[in-house]
Amino acid sequence: MTIKKFISYFCYTLVMIGALIVFLLIYKSLNKQAEMNYNFIPVVTFSLLYPILLGVLFALPGLLKRVRKDNAKGFNLGKFLGVGIPAVYVMVAPLLSFTNIISIDLPLTHVLLSQYTGGVMIFSFVFGYITIDCIRRDRGDREPVPNVQS
Description:
The protein is mainly alpha-helical and 150 residues long.
């Protein structure tokens, strides 16, 4: 490993730690405000959004590699629909139940509400990561290999 790669990995790690610290400070501030005015919707909303942003930040190096190799011209819809949409459901179901926007009882809502801090944050992170990771050239987009006969 060269010193240039080491420095780039180290700087990337510092940026990630800095982003996490900023997100946690914002969360703490929102939590204090919620305790004073009993409005927890901003805290719940932010707790859904900051893991998405962390997931996006974690996926950016892979996207930059694909952009350099000219492989970021498509969107892997199958991966997004198979992983991203269920992750959105796991993220949004407790929020909808908490805000009473939907009056019907969605499946898994009670389980997700009881485990809100861990499981939903993981799925929020996965959604952010998958959204960026799906930006790539599909296997079907590649140019066909010429048929060489000998």
